[in-house]
Design goal:
Blueprint lengths: L22 H16 L5 E5 L15 E3 L5 H11 L4 E7 H5 L3 H10 L4 E6 L2 E2 L5 E2 L18 H4 L5 H5 L8 E6 L3 H18 L3 E6 L3 H4 L3 H15 L3 E5 L2
Parallel strand pairs: 1-2, 1-3, 3-4, 4-8, 7-8
Antiparallel strand pairs: 5-6, 7-9
């Protein structure tokens, strides 16, 4: 039987750690394929944040470090100072990136730290029960906005790639993709990591992802929410494409 798992993925009899329909599993499998295609598993440090991202701690057969919430980016930046020839990847949620971790993210991007940051955007704080996050959409119902998010009180959904692309550093690679377009996502991951390696530069990818458990939606409605609702606010594409 053909092995459908990337070589870099640890295969075991344990069940998948993520909830049914979660976009993390799709994202991580695609990332594992990229590790194999670029042959970088033996020289990659994989940093994970607190939150659902931490469930990836034993997903890959690569050195992995779990950090405090919002501190994944500076930890991987620091690692690269010591091991400049390695590939540094920070894997975080939208809360870890755009709330508690925002100052670290902005400064790493502006310094052009040679790391790749992958942010999973599912519009909520998923692991802690589905509370409103920086990326929560207008009128979206969450555990802390049961009547829908009021932008007059809570503000608009945060646009990470758009903010980073406005920084003075124009050497970055910045993109937004979706788990609903896995082949496109795979290509973007490859471009981002290759940009880090070839140009010694910062790369950033935001990934639109599903959370059926906290959204309280079935698979069909979760996919529709990403396609029809999220993509209106979070347009897909490359925001910076420096070679």
């Amino acid at each position: 039987m053909q092995n459908l798992f990337p070589k870099s993925v640890k295969v075991s009899s344990k069940p998948d750690k993520f909830c049914p329909g979660c976009g993390h599993s799709i994202t991580l499998k695609i990332l594992g394929m990229v590790f194999d295609e670029l042959n970088i598993a033996n020289k990659t440090i994989f940093g994970i944040d607190i939150g659902c991202a931490l469930l990836a701690w034993d997903y890959f057969d690569v050195p992995t470090v779990q950090t405090h919430h919002g501190r994944t980016v500076p930890v991987i930046s620091g690692y690269k100072k010591v091991k400049p020839d390695d590939v540094g990847i920070a894997y975080v949620g939208d809360g870890g990136a755009y709330a508690i971790g925002m100052q670290s993210l902005i400064n790493a991007a502006n310094r052009n730290d040679p790391i790749t940051v992958i942010v999973i955007n599912n519009t909520i704080y998923a692991m802690t029960g589905g509370q409103m996050a920086p990326t929560t959409l207008t009128n979206e119902v969450t555990a802390t906005t049961p009547g829908g998010k009021n932008i007059a009180e809570k503000g608009e959904a945060f646009l990470g790639p758009e903010l980073l692309s406005s920084l003075p550093n124009k050497k970055m690679y910045i993109a937004r993709s979706s788990v609903l377009k896995p082949l496109v996502l795979k290509n973007i991951f490859k471009k981002a990591i290759e940009h880090q390696m070839k140009n010694n530069s910062f790369s950033f990818i935001e990934v639109l992802s599903m959370c059926p458990t906290n959204w309280k939606k079935n698979a069909k409605d979760s996919i529709k929410f990403v396609e029809k609702d999220m993509q209106k606010t979070f347009p897909l594409g490359e925001f910076s494409n420096k070679k």
